């Protein structure tokens, strides 16, 4: 990206990254909140549980499709302005959810909210890497990404508790309030970061280059493997491990905490060697799923398998983002919104595959399905490790780093 970089003191850079983390945390919590209060929403809107479940799909579709579209439309705008606009409209979309009773409008508002989260993600990465030197770009990404990981581990469960105590509208009111807090923090702490000089059409040929699509396919497969097993983890824990009730929540919390810890630490591995991190990470996911399948009947070992799975997935996430952005080169500003789309498509594919498997077999079949996909992913990760950014591929030998790499001297 040809983005002029903000010159900040180390302390101010940390505050900027913390603000972006907060925004990602709030939006990630809102995305997952519906799952925990699905029955309450269905009863209030007078629709079936499957119809209410469509609200989750609608949000994912908005993020996967609408996010890149909005990113393309706002590619030349200042990133700070995009962040502010996305948070403002996100607050209004969730306020609408609190006020309406019509299912059709509710569904539309969820699609819009998903698209706004998608454009926020791309702008947050751009703003985050703008305040750090090139060698710390992965660590900046890990801070931003960790907002989503922490929202899965803490934000969604806490929102569910609020929803059960105060009603689902109370939980969404809390989301609106937290979004306003994130908006105010962005106004105060995030510096202006100019958009790109070229429009979406000029960036598209780089953002959708075969080398970038290959890593996006890798991202899709990784999350397909993960969610083939994870979507049906509760039946596995109940039927194979023999745990139930509050113990299931403990297992899920352990996985979420491990994912958050992995995403925080994964930035250092991305900065060191993102391609190698993906090879090791995909192998780790496969081994973790194999251990879960073979040793899942023993509660302690099942918990350790989930911890390992969460760590490996978390560690890989910054490297996936880093590779897509680097390989896109001049198209990095547009490409940064694409991994989130690949993740959501992978989740949908993996959940469907796991559902078919568990519907025709035992509770462990979904884990086996995830394992099979994970084994396929390992050589894909190895193959993508040979892909080089356009600046490295340049036969003329230009020594410049990929244009999406920032060049400042501050440290977060």
TrEMBL record:
This is MFS transporter. Keywords: Cell membrane, Membrane, Transmembrane, Transmembrane helix. InterPro entries: MFS (IPR011701), MFS_dom (IPR020846), MFS_Efflux_Transporters (IPR050189), MFS_trans_sf (IPR036259). The chain crosses the membrane at residues 20-43, 49-70, 82-101, 107-131, 143-166, 172-191, 212-234, 240-262, 298-317, 338-358, 364-382. Its main location: membrane. One of its GO terms (molecular function) is transmembrane transporter activity. It is found in: Cell membrane. It comes from the Bacteria. PANTHER family: CHLORAMPHENICOL EFFLUX PUMP RV0191, PURINE EFFLUX PUMP PBUE. GO terms for cellular component: plasma membrane. SUPFAM superfamilies: MFS general substrate transporter (SSF103473). Residues 16-392 form the Major facilitator superfamily (MFS) profile domain. It is a multi-pass membrane protein. CDD domains: MFS_NepI_like.
């Amino acid at each position: 990206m040809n983005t002029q970089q903000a010159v900040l003191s180390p302390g101010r850079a940390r505050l900027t990254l913390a603000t972006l983390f907060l925004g990602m945390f709030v939006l990630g919590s809102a995305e997952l909140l519906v799952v925990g209060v699905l029955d309450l929403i269905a009863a209030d809107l007078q629709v079936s549980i499957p119809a209410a479940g469509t609200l989750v799909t609608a949000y994912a579709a908005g993020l996967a499709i609408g996010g890149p579209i909005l990113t393309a439309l706002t590619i030349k705008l200042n990133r700070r302005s995009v962040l502010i606009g996305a948070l403002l409209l996100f607050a209004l979309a969730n306020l609408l959810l609190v006020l309406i009773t019509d299912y059709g409008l509710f569904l539309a508002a969820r699609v819009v909210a998903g698209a706004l989260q998608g454009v926020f993600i791309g702008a947050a990465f751009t703003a985050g890497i703008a305040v750090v030197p090139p060698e710390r770009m992965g660590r900046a990404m890990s801070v931003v990404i960790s907002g989503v990981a922490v929202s899965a581990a803490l934000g969604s469960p806490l929102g569910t508790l609020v929803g059960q105590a105060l009603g689902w509208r109370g939980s969404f009111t809390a989301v609106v309030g937290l979004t306003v807090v994130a908006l105010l923090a962005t106004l105060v702490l995030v510096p202006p970061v100019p958009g790109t000089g070229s429009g979406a059409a000029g960036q598209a040929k780089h953002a959708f280059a075969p080398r970038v699509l290959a890593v996006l396919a890798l991202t899709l497969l990784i999350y397909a493997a993960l969610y083939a097993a994870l979507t049906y983890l509760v039946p596995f824990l109940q039927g194979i491990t023999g745990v139930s009730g509050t113990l299931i929540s403990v297992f899920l919390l352990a996985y979420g905490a491990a994912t958050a810890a992995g995403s925080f630490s994964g930035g250092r591995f991305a900065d060191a060697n993102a391609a190698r991190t993906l090879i090791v990470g995909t192998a780790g996911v496969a081994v973790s799923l194999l251990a879960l399948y073979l040793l899942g009947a023993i509660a302690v070992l099942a918990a350790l398998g989930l911890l390992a799975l969460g760590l490996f997935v978390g560690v890989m996430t910054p490297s996936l983002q880093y590779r897509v952005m680097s390989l896109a080169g001049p198209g990095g500003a547009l490409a940064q919104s694409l991994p989130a789309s690949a993740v959501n498509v992978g989740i949908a594919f993996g959940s469907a595959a796991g559902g078919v498997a568990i519907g025709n077999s035992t509770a462990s079949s979904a884990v086996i399905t995830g394992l099979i996909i994970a084994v396929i992913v390992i050589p894909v990760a190895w193959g993508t490790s040979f892909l080089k950014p356009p600046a490295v591929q340049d036969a003329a030998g230009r020594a410049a780093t990929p244009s999406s790499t920032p060049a400042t001297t501050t440290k977060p």
